[in-house]
Design goal:
Helices cover 50% and strands 10% of the residues. The chain has helices at 17-26, 50-59, 76-93, 108-117, 132-142, 151-156, 164-172, 188-196, 212-220, 222-225, 233-241, 255-260, 262-275, 278-284, 294-302, 313-331, 346-374; strands at residues 6-9, 29-30, 33-35, 37-41, 44-48, 96-100, 123-128, 177-182. A hairpin with a 2-residue loop joins strand 4 (37-41) and strand 5 (44-48). The radius of gyration is 21 Å and the shape is globular.
Length: 376
């Protein structure tokens, strides 16, 4: 296959997509390659490129823009036509458009139609995936927790399942498509950039799983921090300014859940071996969690994460205090930071930590407004 004329990053969700979109939003133009996004504006889906794209990303608490997913727009055909137009413009202008959405990996039929309408130009479809147990655990903390208190009930109700290996063959079957599937580790941005020789800024981790202490704090104080189950912006803001507290990674999987996912893991591994180019399958399998459950044993021995673990609150307070100093310093409005409370109750820690988190949220908004105006 010749060099691609189109690059579509289709996810998967919770597999480094936010970090990649942040890097591409910060530096969208790369000579022959251009990152293109789109957002609703006055009832229409408008393309974003170059300077306008960068400004829109700076204004966002997420610090990136992308294309919307089909299911997030009232009329999915609107997204279909916007993608088609963005690709056609790139083909006509002589550059390779890069389009991205972390949820596109479940919509192969749309892309078969879009690319067929364009004459099936040579297209790279790029996807990053994690092993099922790791992915389900991360997905629960991102989505499931905010509508279901129990992982088992969330899974049993069919709210989500691991099916990348079932959807990706349909992408590979599209004429003139080269499917690239890799693991997101160790640096998804560097890996994507390396595929095409792009120079993109390092952005660190974006939208990684939040620490248990922060998740508990936000869950108990949803109104100011997460009024909608689908709005994780406070986690992006926290990760931008605060160091990660020294605490175990959030964990929701019992041994039963891990055992139940064994058939899915075995099926996915076998399907990927059949589907992928040898170099991509080799890259994917460097994650030991495709071969063994041993990497999960220590975390399972520690038990399920306790969102009311008061012993984690001093570490969270210290991280928030550092974040306040950084965010308010950047905003030019540094204020006094109280000492950690001598508190024996979770309610007292919540009050102290919430006050700092609100300050970070306000300072972050001021920084984004100023940098958007300056076009930094």
């Amino acid at each position: 296959m010749s060099d691609p004329q189109v690059i579509l990053h289709i996810g998967g969700p919770k597999c480094g997509s936010s970090a990649l979109q942040s890097a591409l939003s910060a530096a969208p133009d790369h000579g022959a390659y251009r990152y293109v996004a789109a957002r609703m504006h006055r009832g229409a889906l408008r393309p974003l490129r170059g300077f306008l794209l960068r400004r829109r990303a700076l204004a966002s608490p997420f610090q990136y823009v992308s294309f919307p997913n089909f299911m997030r727009i009232e009329d999915p055909e609107t997204v279909h036509h916007a993608i088609t137009d963005a690709i056609r413009r790139g083909l006509n202008k002589g550059y390779v458009p890069i389009l991205s959405n972390e949820g596109w990996c479940t919509w192969p039929d749309h892309f078969a139609r879009i690319l067929a309408d364009l004459g099936n130009p040579p297209t790279d479809i790029v996807c990053y995936v994690r092993p099922p147990t790791d992915w389900i655990n991360s997905a629960y903390w991102q989505w499931g927790l905010w509508s279901h208190q129990n992982l088992g009930r969330w899974l049993d109700q069919g709210n989500i399942r691991y099916n990348f290996h079932e959807k990706l063959p349909a992408f590979a079957a599209i004429p003139n498509v080269r499917l690239r599937v890799q693991r997101p580790q160790p640096d998804v941005v560097a890996k994507f950039a390396g595929l095409y020789g792009l120079k993109v800024p390092a952005v660190g981790t974006a939208n990684g799983t939040a620490p248990t202490s922060l998740i508990g704090l936000v869950q108990r104080n949803r109104a100011p921090f997460r009024p909608s189950p689908l709005d994780p912006s406070i986690e992006f803001i926290f990760s931008r300014w605060c160091p990660m507290p020294d605490e175990p990674r959030p964990w929701a999987m019992s041994a039963r859940h891990v055992v139940d996912l064994r058939p899915v893991l075995n099926s996915a591994r076998a399907r990927f071996e059949q589907l992928l180019a040898p170099e991509d399958f080799s890259d994917l399998m460097q994650d030991p969690r495709w071969h063994s459950e041993e990497p999960y044993h220590e975390r399972m021995r520690q038990g399920l994460s306790d969102l009311k673990d008061i012993s984690l609150m001093p570490g969270l307070y210290a991280a928030l205090a550092e974040g306040v100093a950084k965010a308010e310093g950047r905003a030019g409005r540094a204020g006094h930071i109280p000492h950690a409370p001598d508190a024996a109750t979770l309610e007292a820690w919540d009050a102290a930590c919430s006050a700092l988190l609100l300050r970070i949220k306000a300072a972050d908004a001021r920084v984004r407004r100023r940098e958007t105006l300056l076009g930094a």
